[in-house]
């Protein structure tokens, strides 16, 4: 990684883009380095590390209260026995179990209902956050020759919702981070661009000018993005389905 320079009156100066110095990565991609954002990220990560350390220290203090208890199951059973002995003063032990069963059934019904609502909500949230990003993607509109729903069918499995945010993972299961904002996760379009660049059949889904740039080759179709991939939307959808079915 090296800084990009321009020559003015025989002198070399760093190229600036939006107030940020431009660097050239090993793969030739130019990235405007956000020094302020990087510093803020380092500060935030240091604060998070301190918070994790403090939580670990508190956990160790709590654990000391249970020193000497090697069998957690036996300890729990002993506590239940004591609870039942106290309750026997009021009702027979058999009645206690009956009451416990009724309470358990009622609670389970409420739990099942809550789980059902949570599942529905998660599905709606996924459809809006994941599907909505594909539908509104400028990268798809500008760079890809296939419709957003086909792109989602191919790359949707690489996206998850974590803590209310869309997080992208590459083919090795690693989170995709931003090149221009070190330490920060890539936004949707930047992550999708990375996923497409790693896709073996990217030449088939990129628009012709992008598929032919950067030394890209189409080993599976000697005509590149011609034929069905250059036809109507229906032709492209059928072609991409046939292609992905064989991978």
Account of the 3D structure:
- It comes from Pseudomonas laurentiana.
- This is DUF6651 domain-containing protein.
- It holds the Pfam family DUF6651.
- InterPro entries: DUF6651.
- The structure is a single chain.
- The protein has 247 residues and is α+β, with helices and mostly antiparallel strands.
- Among the domains are: 32 residues, no CATH class; 117 residues, no CATH class.
- It has 9 helices and 8 strands.
- Strands 1, 4, 5 and 6 form a 4-stranded antiparallel β-sheet that branches. A two-stranded antiparallel ribbon has the order 2-3. Strands 7-8 form a two-stranded antiparallel sheet.
- It is flat.
- 11% of the residues are buried.
- About 6% of the residues have low confidence.
What percentage of residues falls in helices of 4 or more residues? Answer: 55-70%
Query: What's the mean pLDDT score?
Result: 78
Output the helix-strand order.
Answer: EEEEEEHHHHHEEHHHH
Structural class: alpha+beta
Strand portion: 5-15%
Q: Which of globular, elongated, flat, extended, rod-shaped describes the shape?
A: flat
Tally of alpha and pi helices: 9
Q: Low-confidence runs (pLDDT<50, min 5 residues)? A: 214-227
Largest sheet: 4 strands, antiparallel
Measured between the Cα atoms of the first and last residue, the distance is 34 Å
Region (Disordered): 205-232
Pfam families: DUF6651
InterPro entries: DUF6651
Protein name: DUF6651 domain-containing protein
């Amino acid at each position: 990684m090296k800084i990009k320079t321009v020559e003015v009156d025989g002198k070399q100066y760093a190229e600036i883009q939006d107030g940020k110095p431009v660097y050239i990565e090993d793969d030739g991609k130019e990235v405007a380095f956000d020094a302020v954002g990087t510093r803020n990220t380092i500060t935030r990560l240091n604060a998070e590390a301190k918070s994790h350390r403090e939580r670990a220290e508190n956990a160790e203090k709590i654990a000391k209260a249970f020193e000497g208890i090697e069998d957690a199951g036996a300890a729990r059973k002993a506590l239940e026995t004591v609870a039942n002995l106290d309750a026997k003063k009021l009702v027979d032990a058999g009645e206690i179990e009956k009451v416990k069963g009724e309470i358990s059934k009622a609670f389970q019904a409420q739990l099942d209902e809550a789980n059902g609502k949570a599942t529905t909500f998660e599905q709606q949230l996924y459809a809006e956050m994941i599907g909505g990003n594909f539908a509104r993607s400028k990268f798809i509109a500008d760079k890809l020759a296939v419709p957003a729903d086909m792109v989602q069918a191919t790359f949707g499995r690489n996206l998850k919702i974590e803590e209310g945010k869309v997080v992208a993972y590459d083919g090795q299961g690693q989170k995709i981070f931003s090149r221009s904002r070190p330490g920060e996760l890539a936004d949707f379009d930047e992550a999708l661009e990375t996923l497409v660049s790693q896709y073996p059949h990217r030449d088939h889904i990129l628009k012709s000018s992008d598929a032919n740039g950067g030394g890209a080759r189409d080993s599976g179709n000697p005509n590149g993005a011609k034929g069905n991939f250059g036809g109507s939307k229906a032709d492209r959808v059928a072609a991409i389905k046939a292609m992905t079915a064989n991978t």
